[in-house]
Structure formats: structure tokens, C-alpha cells
Amino acid sequence: MRGGIELRHLLRNPKEMSGHVTNVVVALVIAAYIGDDVPGTQTPMAHLVLAGFAAYLLFQIGLINVPQMLVTEREEGALLRLRATPGGIPAYLVAKCLLVTATATGTLVVLLASAALLVDGPLPDGPAGWLTLLWVTTLGLLAVVPLGAAIGAVLPNPREALALIMLPTMGLLVTSGAVFPITSLPVPVQQVASVFPLKWMAQGLRSALLPDSARTAEAAGSWELPLVALVLGAWAVLGFLLAVPLLRRSARRESGSRLASRHRAAERSGALPG
């Protein structure tokens, strides 16, 4: 029930919805102005960019939106109130999972559908492609959402959360081969990017959305789907191992006096009205 309520609040909030719509529009505009093919293939570069942006939007929702939500609601005292509510924390976590899943799925559907209609964007070819799209999306969210929750548990406030997360995330967008072939990057950059989940999310979505001939533009010359599953699964396990103790620690340390102290500090700095 809480997840449904939060989803309705999101749909009725123009500011929050505009952020997701803007990301889709940016991806479509960029794709519309790219006319070349992926080097060594007959696959349009626009299709590679759209597949990469699809991965990045999933990555952004998990690694930027989730920490911001957690930090903001902690600062507002929502988590403190939930501690005194029977079943409050489990309901909160389930609701956030439903909200993030619905947001990510909706954004992905809007991007792929609008791209197919407006800029001749790619869609999976056959049941195998749709199945790959499904499991890569699911495993990709499992890889980044717990990590985002762990980050949100340790960040101090919403403004610093955005500042600390945005720059590394944009760096990964550039270095993970999401917006251009990863083989055009120096080998050391490719090796660093291969440690993080965005590179594998983008590669998995390209395997679902692009023709099989496009695999020749990958660093290994293939989609490496078993390795995609292995790396994303490892990040999912690591994220859960980090998120659970950090969230518990954050909840234990939260108190009315701490919340009041943060509000007084924010008032003094001008972040909140006196």
C-alpha cells in the first residue's frame, strides 16, 4: 500500500517527473543528430547511444535517486518516525523497492517506445532479445539499488549527496562505453570501467537491442553475457552486504536530538527558513 501511495505521489509531482522526462528527451535529441554507423559494423551509432542511455538511466535511478531519497527523508525525520511505527521500516524498504522498480521500468519503456516511434530506435528482435532485456534490467537494478541505499546511509545531507555522486556518475557514463564504442577508449580506461556495473549493464542491453553483428565492436568481440551476469550479480551481493549494516547503523544513530541539531544548523546556514 505504501509503495502505491508513493508511486501516485511521484506521478502527481511535476518536478520529479520532469527530471525523468528530460533524460529521455536528451537521449532522443542526441540520437536524432547522430548519423554514422558503429565502426566496423552496419549498426547505426544512434542505436548504440540509445542502448547506452537506457543503461545509464537505470544506473542513475539506483545510484543517484535512491541516495537522495534516503538522505532527504532522513533529514525530514521520516525515518525517525518510522522507527516508532510497528512494521514501519520493512514497509518503507518494500515501498522504495516498488517505487524504484516502477520508475526504472517506466522510464525504460518510455525511452524505447519513443525512440522506436520518433528516431527509428532499436527494439529486441525476438523472444530471446526480450528475455535478455528483462534479466539484464532486473540484475542491473539489483546491482545498483542496494549500493545506492548504502551510499545514502552514510551521506550527510541532500545537497552534498548530489554533489558527491553526480561527478563520478558522469565520469562512468563517459568511460563505460555507454555513449560511444568502448574500444575507442585507451585500454587502461577500459580496464577501470570494467570494474563498475554500468559498463556491463550497457553491454547487456546492447546485446538485447542491437543485431548480433554489432558484437564485433565490443572489446572482446562478443557480448560476454555470462560475464555480464557474473559481474552484476557480484555487485548485487556486495551492495546488499554493505547496505544492510549501514542502514541499521544509520537507523540506530538517528534520534530526536540529532534531528533537531541538524535542523538548527541548516537554519543557521540559510538552508532552511528560521
What do these coordinates show?
Helix content is 75%, strand content 0%. By secondary structure, it is an all-alpha fold. Helix 6 packs parallel to helix 10 and helix 9 packs across helix 10. The mean pLDDT is 81.
Question: What's the topology here?
Answer:
Blueprint lengths: L1 H10 L2 H19 L12 H31 L2 H6 L4 H31 L8 H28 L3 H18 L11 H7 L3 H13 L15 H29 L2 H14 L5
Helix pairs in contact: 1-5, 2-3, 2-5, 3-5, 3-6, 3-7, 3-9, 6-9, 6-10, 9-10
Structural class: mainly alpha
Mean pLDDT: 81
- Tell me the strand percentage band: under 5%
**SSE pattern:** HHHHHHHHHHH
pLDDT < 50 stretches: none
Tell me the total number of β-strands.
Answer: 0
Helical fraction equals over 70%
Largest sheet: none
Radius of gyration: 20 Å
How far is it from the N-terminal to the C-terminal residue, by CA? Answer: 35 Å
Shape: globular
Helical segment tally?
11
In short:
This protein has 274 residues and is an all-alpha fold. The protein has helices at 2-11, 14-32, 45-75, 78-83, 88-118, 127-154, 158-175, 187-193, 197-209, 225-253, 256-269.
Features of the shown structure:
274 residues; 75% helix; mainly alpha; 11 helices
